[in-house]
C-alpha cells in the first residue's frame, strides 16, 4: 500500500538488523535505496540481495569527509535523497566514573552526531527540491532506561531532541523530521545486549511487551516506510513508539 516509486532514500547502518530490513521494505515499496555502513562485506552482500534499485557506499557516519564521498557516490547512482533514515547506532555499557572522555565521544559520535552530519549532507538537496523526509531511529531508552547502559539513554534522548529541533528548522522547506523509538527488536545488537545481562532478562523482556513477543526488524521498517511516504504528510517533529506497548505499562 505504501508507494515510494520515484523516491530515493539513504539508510545508514543498512548492512544488517533493522537497517537492512528498512532497506528491503523501501525497495519493495518501489523506492531507490542507498545503503551506508562501515561493515563493507555485509553491506555488499545485503545490497546485492536487494536488486538493481539499490546502491551502497561504505561510510563511517562519524566522519564528515566519508559522508560527503558516500553522498556523492549515491547521488550519482540513484539521484539526490528525498528521504534519509538515520539508523546506524551502537549500545553503550560504561561506568559513569570509569568512562573516559574519548569513550564518551565515541558513543555520542555514532548515536547522535552522525545523524546531524548525515542530515547536514542531504538537507541542501531536499530544500532545493522543496521537500523530503528524515527518520531518526531512537529507542525506548529515549524516555525510559535500565541499569548498565550508561550513557545510551542520553544519546537517544538527544536524538529525539534533535528530531524536534531539526523539524522546526526545516519545516518551512517542506522537509519533515520524525523519530521512531523501537522496543526490544530481535537483532545481533539485542543478542549483544542480552549477553551483558543475566539469562532471566530475556524472559522479563518478553513479559514487558503487551503483545507478548519481541519485535522484528520488519515491524520497525513498516513504520519507517510510512513516515517516509506521503501518507504521513502532516506528521513532523514526532517520536513514534514501535515497542509492542512496552512504554504504555507501569508494572
Ligand atoms: P545492529 O548492531 O544489528 O546494526 C547496526 C548497524 O550499524 C551495523 O551494520 C553497524 O555496522 C552499523 N554501524 C555502526 N556504527 C556505524 C558507523 N559509525 N557508521 C556507519 N554504520 C555504522 O543494530 P540494530 O539492532 O539493527 O539497531 C539499529 C538501530 O536501532 C540503532 O540505532 C539502535 O540503537 C536502534 N535500536 C535497536 C533496538 C534493538 O532492540 N535492536 C531497540 C531500540 C533501538
Short description:
Helix content is 45%, strand content 15%. It is of the alpha/beta class and 251 residues long.
Shape: globular
Query: In sequence order, what are the helices and strands, one letter per element?
Result: EHEHEHEHEHEHHHE
- Bound small-molecule species: 1,4-dihydronicotinamide adenine dinucleotide
Number of helices: 8
Give the percentage of residues in beta strands.
15-25%
Say which CATH homologous superfamily is assigned: NAD(P)-binding Rossmann-like Domain
Q: Uncertain segments of ≥5 residues (pLDDT<50)?
A: none
* CATH architecture type: 3-Layer(aba) Sandwich
CATH overall fold name: Rossmann fold
Quantity of strands, as a count: 7
Main-sheet strand order equals 3-2-1-4-5-6-7
User: What Rg is obtained from the alpha carbons, in whole angstroms?
Assistant: 17 Å
Tell me the number of structural domains: 1
What is the overall pLDDT average? Answer: 97
N- to C-terminal distance: 36 Å
| Range of helix content | 40-55%
What descriptive keywords fit this protein?
single chain, 251 residues, alpha/beta, Rossmann fold, 45% helix, 15% strand, globular
Structure description:
With 251 residues, this protein is an alpha/beta fold. It has a single domain, classed as Rossmann fold, CATH 3.40.50. Helix content is 45%, strand content 15%. It has a 7-stranded parallel beta sheet, with helices on both faces. β4, α4 (101-129) and β5 form a beta-alpha-beta unit. α1 (17-28) crosses α8 (217-228) and α3 packs parallel to α4. The radius of gyration is 17 Å and the shape is globular. The protein binds 1,4-dihydronicotinamide adenine dinucleotide. 1,4-dihydronicotinamide adenine dinucleotide is lined by residues 12-13, 15-19, 37-39, 59-62, 87-90, 110, 137, 139, 182, 184-185, 187-190.
Amino acid at each position: 500500500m505504501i508507494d515510494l516509486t520515484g523516491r530515493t532514500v539513504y539508510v545508514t547502518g543498512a548492512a544488517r538488523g533493522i537497517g537492512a530490513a528498512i532497506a528491503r521494505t523501501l525497495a519493495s515499496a518501489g523506492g531507490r535505496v542507498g545503503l551506508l555502513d562501515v561493515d563493507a562485506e555485509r553491506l555488499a552482500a545485503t545490497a546485492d540481495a536487494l536488486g538493481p534499485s539499490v546502491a551502497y557506499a561504505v561510510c563511517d557516519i562519524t566522519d564528515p569527509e566519508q559522508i560527503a564521498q558516500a553522498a556523492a557516490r549515491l547521488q550519482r547512482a540513484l539521484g539526490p535523497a528525498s528521504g534519509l533514515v538515520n539508523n546506524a547506532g551502537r549500545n553503550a555499557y560504561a561506568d559513569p566514573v570509569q568512562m573516559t572522555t574519548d569513550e564518551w565521544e565515541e558513543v555520542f559520535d555514532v548515536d547522535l552526531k552522525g545523524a546531524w552530519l548525515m542530515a547536514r549532507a542531504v538537507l541542501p538537496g531536499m530544500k532545493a527540491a522543496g521537500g523530503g523526509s528524515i527518520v531518526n531511529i531512537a529507542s525506548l531508552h529515549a524516555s525510559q532506561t535500565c541499569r548498565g547502559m550508561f550513557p545510551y539513554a542520553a544519546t537517544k534522548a538527544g536524538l529525539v531532541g534533535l528530531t524536534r529541533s531539526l523539524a522546526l528548522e526545516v519545516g518551512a522547506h517542506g522537509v519533515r523530521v520524525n523519530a521512531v523509538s523501537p522496543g526490544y527488536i530481535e537483532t545481533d545488537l539485542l543478542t549483544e545486549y542480552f549477553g551483558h545481562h543475566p539469562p532471566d532478562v530475556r524472559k522479563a523482556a518478553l513479559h514487558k511487551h503487551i503483545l507478548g513477543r519481541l519485535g522484528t526488524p520488519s515491524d520497525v521498517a513498516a513504520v519507517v516506510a510510512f513516515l517516509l511516504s506521503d501518507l504521513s504528510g502532516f506528521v513532523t517533529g514526532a517520536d513514534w513508539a514501535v515497542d509492542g506497548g512496552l512504554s504504555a505499562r507501569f508494572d
